[in-house]
Amino acid sequence: MDWKNLERELIALRRDFHKYPESAWTEFRASAIIASRLGELGYKLSLGFDNIDVQSVMGRPDEAEIDRQIERSKAQLPKTCADGAGLIDKMRRYPGVVGILDSGKKGPVISLRFDIDCVDVNETDKSEHRPNKEGFASVNACLDHSCGHDAHAAIGLGLATALMERKDELRGEIRLIFQPGEEGCRGAYAMTQKGVVDGSDYFLSMHIGTGVPSGSFGLNSHGHLCTTKFDAVFTGRAAHAAGAPQEGKNALLAAATAAISLHAIAPHSDGPMRVNVGTLHAGTGRNVIADHAVMKAETRGENQKIADYVYKRACEVISGAAAIYETEVKITKEGSGTSADGDVALAEKVGAVLRASGLFSSVLNDVPAAGSEDATWMMRRVQEQGGQALYMALGSDITAPHHNGAFDLDESAMINGVRALDAIVGELSKSEGKS
Ligand SMILES: [Zn+2]
Ligand SMILES: [Zn+2]
């Protein structure tokens, strides 16, 4: 493999994805580029809708917004992706791609997941920020690859290239899963429910950065918090604020009462939990009793039991606050992630491969997870079926915290990420597999 050449390709790909970021459930351009490339390489493709259990979809924009986003994605396709618009049509309004390499030889099923969505945040306009300096800053307003999923998408395609080049050495089946909607934990559950990881002997996912410095690799990221993302929509009745306030039902006060009271949910003695009300929009005019309020909030817990406790209490608090003001409230789940522990036996096997590879100056056994992650649904499914799973951290120095508009990563980490995954898949492919 010409790794130097592949590294140039990775950087170009990452910068292209960075310039045209797409938010959860609208990653049509990225999916088209990924599918086009995987198809050229000889992967069997499963596109968009075919990978999604529609009943399990959370936090997807409405159909009119999907129409607008498909139009933009098509307009922003590079000329080199001539089949892109046709591929987007074949996705049937849901982004995401699974590429399958069937070696034709008996062996294990190895699934790898790469998330491809951006964060809803404005990229900084500071001139020292490299994407500004070198001309690949986001051109889409309030969208920025500030979590590093642009690098994940590039690494996934780099791995696809490397594996296909040595296809004859591989056994079993390799599935490269390019998942939409990781931010807000929206996409993985619907893919898991559709069965994209079913039958896997091994499942691997990896995040760049997350506090691990360049040159290091974390084998087993622990402690992803279980989380539920939800919207609460309060509906009251508008009335003249002075002429007939008694006729009104105040949705603004109901939502404000809920926001304060949510932060008073009692902690749980079993472990940490979190509550956050991220946005609250209410009312229509100064002299009108507000008849409408929308709250976007989330709850988290160290394990599923604590997470279930805090979410249940949150629903009770919101319903109670709505009742005080005689308003109606509707709560909808917009995302969810569970917890999952990586398999120590798999971490040991992967650790031996990476230590022998000399790719990293330090290979750490355990690293703390940063926040929540919906790949945990895939990990859990594979483990329930008797397979092994691991969530790893690819070290990269970063210029600002994840999700901050000044975030940038160390692009030289990407090629070592590809080489690491290539070596790991090569080794796992030699094993028998459970079936
Ligand atoms: Zn993120
Ligand atoms: Zn991320």
Q: Quick summary of this structure?
A:
This protein has 435 residues and is an alpha/beta fold. It has helices at 3-19, 28-41, 63-75, 84-90, 130-133, 149-165, 188-194, 251-262, 304-324, 344-357, 375-384, 412-428; strands at residues 44-47, 97-102, 109-115, 173-179, 202-208, 216-222, 226-235, 273-282, 292-301, 328-337, 362-368, 388-394. It has twelve helices and twelve strands.
Produce the secondary structure layout:
Layout: H1 3-19, H2 28-41, E1 44-47, H3 63-75, H4 84-90, E2 97-102, E3 109-115, H5 130-133, H6 149-165, E4 173-179, H7 188-194, E5 202-208, E6 216-222, E7 226-235, H8 251-262, E8 273-282, E9 292-301, H9 304-324, E10 328-337, H10 344-357, E11 362-368, H11 375-384, E12 388-394, H12 412-428
Parallel strand pairs: 3-4, 3-5, 5-12, 6-11
Antiparallel strand pairs: 1-2, 2-4, 6-12, 7-9, 7-10, 8-9
Helix pairs in contact: 1-6, 1-12, 2-4, 2-6, 6-12, 7-11, 8-9, 10-12
The structure holds zinc ion (ZN) (2 copies).
Residues 147, 149, 182, 207 line the site of one zinc ion (ZN).
Bound molecules: zinc ion
* Fraction of residues in H or I helices: 25-40%
- Amino-to-carboxy terminus distance: 31 Å
Taking Cα atoms only, what radius of gyration do you get, to the nearest Å?
23 Å
Q: Could you give a short account of the major beta sheet?
A: 8 strands, mixed
Helix and strand element order? HHEHHEEHHEHEEEHEEHEHEHEH
What's the β-strand tally? 12
The general outline is: globular
Category from helices, strands and their pairing = alpha/beta
Mean pLDDT: 97
Beta content = 15-25%
Report the uncertain regions.
Answer: none
Strand order of the largest sheet: 1-2-4-3-5-12-6-11
- How many distinct helices? 12
